[in-house]
């Protein structure tokens, strides 16, 4: 697992980038929740890749994150 992660809040569904490994504070609803592997949509050691994924995720809509992951992996 990479250092930086795109995670999704289990309460409100807000997606954000975090470097946390245990608990994440949601910028959407303010809740602090425990990080679990199934809430990690994408991870990398490189913050640029993680931010790039989040950007595509927001463009595609959160329900389409798997497709966004595919698109991202095809980038040069
Ligand atoms: Zn939230």
Features of this protein?
3-stranded antiparallel beta sheet, 26% strand, 76 residues, binds zinc ion, 32% helix, alpha+beta, 2 helices
Describe the structure.
By secondary structure, the chain is of the alpha+beta class. It has one domain (4-74). It is built from two helices and five strands, in the order βββββαα. The chain has helices at residues 47-60, 65-74; strands at 4-8, 15-18, 23-25, 32-34, 40-44. The strands form two sheets. A three-stranded antiparallel sheet has the order 2-1-5, with helices on one face. The protein has a two-stranded antiparallel ribbon with strand order 3-4. A hairpin with a 6-residue loop joins β1 and β2. α1 crosses α2. The longest helix is centred in the C-terminal third of the chain and has 14 residues, at 47-60. The chain is globular, with a radius of gyration of 12 Å. The relative contact order is 0.22. The structure holds zinc ion. Zinc ion (ZN) is lined by residues 9, 11-12, 14, 26, 28-29, 31.
List the helices and strands and how they pair.
Blueprint: E1 4-8, E2 15-18, E3 23-25, E4 32-34, E5 40-44, H1 47-60, H2 65-74
Antiparallel strand pairs: 1-2, 1-5, 3-4
Helix pairs in contact: 1-2
The structure holds zinc ion.
How many helical elements? Answer: 2
Helix content: 25-40%
Poorly predicted runs are: none
| Number of domains as seen in the coordinates | 1
Gyration radius (Cα, Å) is 12 Å
Shape: globular
**What hetero molecules are in the model?**
zinc ion
Secondary structure: number of strands: 5
Order of helices and strands: EEEEEHH
> Distance N terminus to C terminus?
21 Å
Give the averaged pLDDT, no decimals. 85
What strand line-up does the widest sheet have? Answer: 2-1-5
How large is the share of residues in beta strands?
25-35%
Major β-sheet profile: 3 strands, antiparallel
Structural class: alpha+beta
